[in-house]
Design a protein that fits this description.
By secondary structure, the chain is mainly alpha-helical. A 3-stranded antiparallel beta sheet has the order 1-3-2. The longest helix has about 35 residues. The protein is globular.
Length: about 150
């Protein structure tokens, strides 16, 4: 195996470690959010992204980026949340093709109740991961990532 192959394997191992940490966190949060608020992690992510707009709205495309979903999956997700009365769609006045999404009062209330569940599940999952030798260095590095990576909108 050459130097180039070693570099590829090192990056691949880093990716596998990151995926393992992500899986552990997502599984923990999914179970907690479903049990306490009947929300999936991606549904929580949408409500949280809309809430961070401070009473403003987001285009469907922005929500897709915030959730890492395809346009069609984003539409299905927004349909489900709209059917539950958690968000609403607004047509853009100056671009008839543009559709915005906005958090409803019910969505805001559900999010407020789910936030502590989300935060506690995240904290527990990170504490569990910190005890695993293969994940501990990544958990330790997380606080520094905030300073390096700009906030997603």
């Amino acid at each position: 195996m050459g130097i180039r192959d070693d570099a590829v394997e090192i990056r691949a191992q880093g990716w596998r470690t990151l995926a393992a940490l992500h899986g552990l966190i997502e599984t923990s949060m999914e179970k907690a959010l479903q049990g306490a608020a009947q929300l999936s992690v991606v549904e929580y992510t949408v409500l949280d992204a809309l809430n961070r707009q401070d009473g403003w709205h987001m285009r469907m495309q922005q929500l897709g980026r915030a959730t890492a979903l395809s346009p069609s999956a984003t539409t299905r997700l927004v349909n489900r949340l709209e059917d539950r009365g958690l968000l609403t769609r607004i047509l853009c006045a100056d671009d008839r093709r543009g559709i915005y999404t906005e958090l409803t009062a019910a969505g805001s209330e559900l999010l407020d109740g789910a936030r502590s569940v989300h935060d506690e599940a995240l904290e527990c999952a990170l504490a569990e991961a910190a005890l695993l030798p293969e994940l501990a260095p990544l958990v330790e590095a997380l606080p520094q990532l905030h300073a390096v990576v700009p906030a997603a909108t």
